[in-house]
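Hi R.,

Here's the chain you asked about this morning:
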Amino acid sequence: MKTIQILGFIAGILFLLGPSVGFAKEPPHTLARLTHTQTQKHDLVTIERSESDVAVIMLSLPRTKRNYSPSEYESAAVAVKAVAHRLEAALTRYGSSVAYINENGTPSLSVTLLSEHLPTVLPLVTHYWFHARFTPREWQALLTQEATGSSAPDPLEQAVPMVLAQRSGLPVSSLTADPMRFDSSRTALIVGGPLSARETLRILGDNSPQQSITPLPPVPRYAEPSVNECDFAETDTGLTAILLPVQVEAISSSVWPSARIAIAVAGTGFESRLNQELRTKKGWAYGAGIPMYYYPSYSMGLAKARVSANKAQASAQLMKDVLRSLTTSPASDLEIQLAKEFLVENYWTNRELVTHEAAYLADFLNAGMSIKQFEGYADSLTAVSSAQVKEFAIAHPVSIWVAKAYAVKANGSLCRLPLV
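And here is the predicted structure, written out as tokens:
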């Protein structure tokens, strides 16, 4: 009985200390073998996991391949979405799941399937992608469908791209009579499953990117309307969302690990300062966080929380003050330790399943991180000292990080929240 009491006492102490003691996630027992192969025909990354029953195929048009114009990306996004719909019908018999993804403005397509079907499905998927053509009539129908889609996305998610990048109007080119397709020679291909890089290239064979016949015309887009200052009433208790763009260094930068930990201290996990202030102390939001968006030359966080409309202004100011506190009240060693453990655990969790690893890896690679950097990412986070995190916060004050704050109204429109 005494032994049980002692063990119970120790367990209680560990519980009170929380995740900072003995709860760091260990690396998976068997890590996938990552291989980056560049040939004249393909830019291929394989995630070789021999024991996996599930496989994944991801194709994307990353910004790191070349500098794209906004119109090229708008066109590619519509085309990739159309290819995803075509593939859904073609792969029904294989029980595959097809998803269109457009994270960070990188039009991508993901196919999840049973590993046993990978040798058969991979050539089909790449054929549909590399050889997708659209007649002028089909293209016009796609544009009409895109403009009149019946889906009603979450106003918050709909507002994210508007906040991250306000776009100007784009000219509309006249449609030609020739079949059109996007330039698939820029494709980044990720294949996860039991196949090695050599086996994957053999299956792909000559099924490779083709020269564009006639480039896709730009998609008509218009400048976003001017964003007015919010005018919420004191009696307005409707739920709204607060958004504060936070810009820091690119993931390929040597100071990125320090930057990521600093942002985690501010807004990643329930122990973060944003959650402590808005959720625990004020009770204004169930939770707050800073999801990250990665680009080749910089990284963008989006501090956000859902609050009552009559608390929008005060919440936005509090969120900026919390971010500013990283400079005025440097992160403690415990805060930094908890943030590092959270990020490292998230890294290993995303590497446990091939489907998660493919999406996680694509996000980093498309923004310029190498395979070597990705494989050493957990170590690079662990190696960062508390002093380096504090130095980064002091050298990069929040006045540089945060320039504006927005609220998302119930109808999905944006309004601006003034900050001091």
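One quick note: The two ends are 60 Å apart (CA to CA).

Cheers,
M.
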